[in-house]
Design goal:
206 residues, mainly alpha, Tetracycline Repressor, domain 2, 9 helices, elongated
Length: 206
């Protein structure tokens, strides 16, 4: 195994263990020393991989968002589904991934709450991290309108915001309420996706 590959593998292991520390201690009380101890290494060695806890936390989020965006692009770019089916598949994938990554999402919520208390803007931080995902959803809706699958009057921006709001609801249920069953949100995603193609004055059917 090359040195660079081994280095990246070790970084991934550090991120996994650091996430455990963040989840137990909270973002504010997590320290570089606590992360080093959890990894079984010294601070000096940890500095070979990361400069501070902020960089470690940012790397955890970047890894999660990278995986999320990659899977969204795969679904959006596939040819086996129509636009409605793609939106539903994307929504369900995101919701299910939120359940799997509930530990990270809980830490992210803790971080955002601390940011707000310190006078920061949590909404701006979240939007900056999710701008590409929002763009993919809006593009998918525009494509559906072009193909005649969605009603001409459908607003790509408004529809993508509704989808994103449902995803935010899933995050809230998983992180704050501790719910693991988010099947009702999947049904809501299906209903919303189906309604985009309904003619005015008719009942949407999926």
């Amino acid at each position: 195994m090359s040195v660079s590959v081994e280095h990246e593998k070790r970084k991934e292991e550090i991120l996994d263990k650091a996430l455990d520390v963040f989840a137990v201690e909270g973002y504010k009380d997590t320290t570089f020393q606590k992360i080093a101890e959890r990894c079984g290494i010294t601070r000096t060695i940890l500095y070979l991989y990361f400069n501070n806890k902020k960089e470690i936390f940012a790397s955890c989020i970047k890894r999660f968002m990278g995986r999320l965006e990659q899977e969204i692009r795969v679904i959006a770019g596939g040819a086996e589904r129509n636009s409605t089916e793609k939106l539903v598949a994307i929504g369900e994938m995101v919701v299910n991934l939120c359940v799997v990554e509930s530990k990270l999402l809980s830490v992210m919520l803790d971080y955002l709450l601390n940011l707000k208390m310190a006078g920061g803007d949590p909404d701006e931080r979240v939007r900056r991290r999710t701008v590409r995902m929002r763009h993919i959803l809006a593009t998918l809706i525009i494509e559906g309108k072009r193909k005649g699958e969605f009603a001409p009057a459908v607003s790509g921006k408004a529809a993508s915001e509704l989808f994103y709001a449902l995803i935010e609801a899933a995050v809230f249920r998983v992180t704050v309420l501790g719910k693991r069953d988010v099947s009702s949100l999947s049904e809501s995603l299906r209903l919303l996706a189906a309604s985009l193609g309904a003619a005015p004055g008719t009942d949407a059917k999926y």
